[in-house]
Amino acid sequence: FGAVAIVFAVLLGLVLRWHADGSAAERTYSERVAPVRDRVHILERDVYRVGIALRTQLLNPSAAGSQAYRTTTQNVRTALDSLDRTVTEPDARIPFAEIAAATQDYLRLADQLVAGGGTDGGLRTVDDQGLGTQREIVLGAIAGLRDLTDEREQLALAEIASIRDHTRTGLLIAGAITA
Fold first, then answer.
1. Cα separation of 19 and 14, whole Å?
2. Sign of the alpha-carbon torsion through 165, 168, 170, 172
3. CA angle (13, 14, 19) in 5-degree steps
4. Per-residue pLDDT tens over the stretch 98-155
5. How high is the pLDDT of residue 80?
6. I want to staple 15 with a disulfide (CB 3.0 to 4.6 A). Which of 82, 128, 129, 170 is the partner?
7. Cα(98)–Cα(142) distance, rounded to whole angstroms?
8. What is the pLDDT of residue 21?
9. What is the rounded CA–CA span in Å between residue 47 and residue 106?
10. 171 exposed, middle or buried (CB, 10 Å; 0-12, 13-18, 19+)?
11. With the C-alpha atoms ordered 118, 120, 122, 126, is the resulting torsion angle positive or negative?
12. Quick check: 75 and 49 in contact, CB under 8 A?
């Protein structure tokens, strides 16, 4: 009976350790991985919205369109600041710096185009190409960070699943021993 009690105690200790490891892995995912992923998606969406608001304002200039444009560019700046506060891993700071620089250049170009008012109710082809090129640079930089974040997400979720499998197996064995 003493040997069974010792085995049970060891197994219970392992299950508790696995549970603690699982909690730590879930905390890492929810506090460090998921927030970056979410903010990357928000920034990407808002970058696209700037182009839409810019074209709308240039095609149909209005006070409401101007306000909508200013709101979308402010949303991008807010999303960029939020991402800056969220990206804490050293290897993610490099792609973030690329995103920040490219985004600032994109917004500066967009602001210049809106201030200039376009030509004949729209964008000149050269301006549209320049804006499109700059937007693609921003989106390419965002894709780099998104890929890194997706990789971290897959690793974190795999770790969580593995720990849960260990815990479940340990509980089944403990249940069989006590039965």
1. 8
2. negative
3. 100
4. 999 999 999 999 998 888 875 555 556 657 778 889 999 999 999 999 999 999 999 9
5. 97
6. 170
7. 8
8. 84
9. 9
10. middle
11. negative
12. yes
CA distance 39 to 125: 32
Find out whether 44 and 139 touch, Cβ atoms under 8 Å: yes
Here the tokens at position 141 are 């930089």
**For the chain, how many helices (H) and strands (E)?**
5, 0
Cβ(65)–Cβ(57) below 8 Å = yes
- Give the C-alpha separation, 58 to 66, whole Å: 9
Amino acid identity of 154? Q
Residue 57 DSSP SS3: helix
Closest CA to 123 of 51, 62, 67, 75: 51
Which tokens is 170 given?
């340990």
Q: What is the 3-state secondary structure of 2-14? A: HHHHHHHHHHHHH
Give the sign of the dihedral formed by CA 52, CA 57, CA 63, CA 66: positive
Is residue 117 within 8 Å of 60, Cβ to Cβ?
Answer: no
CA dist., res. 136 & res. 141, Å (int): 8
* CB contact at 8 A, 71 and 55: no
Q: Token pair 């600032």 is at which residue? A: 104
